[in-house]
Amino acid sequence: MEAIIIELKKQKFRGLGTVITLSVAPPANQIQLQQAEQMINRYEDTLTVNRDQSEVMNINHQAGIAPVQVSESTYELIKTAVQVSRKHLGFNVAIGPLVKLWKIGFDGANKPSEEAIKHCLQLINPDAIELSDEEHSVYLKFTGMELDLGGIAKGYIADAVKQMWIKNGVQTGIIDLGGNVLLVGNSIHDDQMWNVGVQNPVKDRHIPIGILHIPEKSIGTSGIYERKLVIDGHEYHHMFDSLTGYPIANDLASVTIVSNQSIDGEIWSTIAFYQGIDHGKELIEAEPGVEAIFIKRDLSVEVTSGLTESFQLTTSLTS
Asked: What stretches in the chain show pLDDT beneath 70?
């Protein structure tokens, strides 16, 4: 009897500042892939801060002037981001002015002056954001403040695509938003589990340091290797410390979060990276349904207790 080979249908396109790859297994087809691409593009139009016009940029343009009413979905996402930011654990939705000051990963990337950084620190306070549940409005109290949903939007969008796919009958799929991966249903392997590579921070894209063998989950990574600026031999990465105005300084190269929802993975990868391996690991261990892989700059690896059986290092880390 011949084995039946099932091939995933794929769609690849640029969006959200990265390369997006969507995959589904039959009986799903190109229709579900196109629906997902359209949904992602709609969300990008609404949430981006890399264009002059969007719902989020409308808020930023009115900073210090007036509240701005937004759609319910945008409001709920911003509210979630603000609530997390006010815990002051390392995630900060008000980080926009600092991101645009350094421009790491964009044209004009530079190391700003101390004076510019100090001025910026006064504008990245999430406690200076007013929310109105009744009006679905957002008000940034001071001129120059800017929201940046880059640390949460991909997760939110991936979760929305998954919900739509399940509603439309997709049984097996992969939502890959530039390395933020959300799995849908069982895999096509005999054991119905998924094998997902975790990026080696010093190797080319898609060369893993280890493999996760897991059921349907979200896998999201925050790391220093995607966008960086080199000045006088010193590397500056794109993950900023709201207290100093400089890139986060610790010995981590990346943190990968395994969770049920992609939005949680985005939030916790940022927090765990900021907190460092000791306190970050402690926080993750206390968070139900969330696990983490910490990779240091020297390529040593630590995982939280829930991944000891499901994560395996590849045979060679440096060759």
From this structure: 1-6, 232, 315-319
Amino acid at 3: A
- What DSSP string runs through 61-117? HTTTT--EE--HHHHHHHHHHHHHHTT-SS--TT-HHHHHHH-TTSTT-----HHHH
206: its two tokens: 């898609």
Between the two ends of the chain, the Cα-to-Cα distance in Å is: 41
* Interatomic CA distance for residues 198 and 221, integer angstroms: 8
Amino acid identity for residue 63 in this structure: A
Contact of 80 with 131, CB cutoff 8 Å: no
User: Which pLDDT score is estimated for 237?
Assistant: 81
pTM of the model: 0.93
Alpha helices in the chain (DSSP H): 30-47, 55-61, 72-85, 96-102, 114-121, 153-167, 262-285
